[in-house]
Amino acid sequence: MAETDYWITRRAVLEGGAATCLLVASGLPVGAQDAVATMAAERVTTPISRIPMRFRINATEHALELDARTTLLDALRNNLGLTGSKKGCDHGQCGACTVLVNGRRINSCLSLAAQHEDDEITTIEGLADGEKLHPVQAAFIAHDGFQCGYCTPGQICSAVGMLDEVRAGWPSHASMDVTSGPAALTEAEIRERMSGNLCRCAAYPNIVAAIRDAAEEV
Predict the structure, then answer these.
(1) Looking at residue 1, what is its pLDDT?
(2) Is the Cβ–Cβ distance between 191 and 202 less than 8 Å?
(3) What's the pTM?
(4) pLDDT tens, 58-69?
């Protein structure tokens, strides 16, 4: 049987507050006010059903019970403790939440967890091979491709997915020739392909250098 809990919505709180103000202004006896206030408070809570789901994340199986509206990002961070994926804008505009799903990079803040049952999900925590860093991780360290580090997990996951796209022959708006195989990873090409990942510290030159270096190893 699915677990049921309660979520206080903003609208319910506002309705409850408005009802309380009207009661105070009504001049009803205290006992009557308490009874009406109790009925208003009961409307504040909305039952939520949690659905059993199974996920394969970083080669490990996980069973969770989640609200159907839970995003993949919130499931990773709040339910599994995989906090490497960051919540930046929560609107799919900054790329800090980027993870790999079946090898493809996605913004996990825009994707419902329920969409990804049985998918192969890789977060920044799952890129390394034991103690051996992924070549992109190692290149970011070697080239100092970060400052505050908040966007770095998303940058790295996006770069891993982007390099796979290049090897598969995917063009970009910067590709001059889309007929002769994989595009050359020029600075313009890398910047275009990584344009969905923002770095507020502006470490872009080092990020580009790290990706060009790692491209020779992956």
Answers:
(1) 44
(2) no
(3) 0.78
(4) 999 999 999 999
DSSP string, 145-202: --SS-SSHHHHHHHHHHHHHHHHTT---TT-S-SSSSSPP--HHHHHHHTTTS--TT-
159: Cβ contacts below 8 Å, ≥ 6 apart: 136, 194, 207, 210, 211, 214
What digits encode the pLDDT tens for the residues 107-164?
999 999 999 999 999 999 999 999 999 999 999 999 999 999 999 999 999 999 999 9
Query: HSE of 132 in the Cβ direction (CA atoms, 13 Å)?
Result: 2
How many CB atoms are located within 10 Å of the residue 111 CB?
A: 19
| Pairwise CA distance, residues 163 & 61, whole Å | 27
What digits encode the pLDDT tens for the residues 162-205? 999 999 999 898 887 766 677 889 999 999 999 999 999 999 99
The fourth-level CATH superfamily of domain 86-215 is [2Fe-2S]-binding domain (1.10.150.120)
Closest CA to 97 of 116, 83, 118: 83
Name residue, tokens 């390394």: 128
Domain layout of the chain by residue ranges: 4-43, 86-215
As a dihedral over the C-alpha atoms of residue 33, residue 36, residue 39, residue 44, rounded to 10 degrees, the angle is -70
Q: What is the largest CA-CA distance in the chain?
A: 84
Kind plus residue range of the DSSP H or E element containing 65: strand 60-67
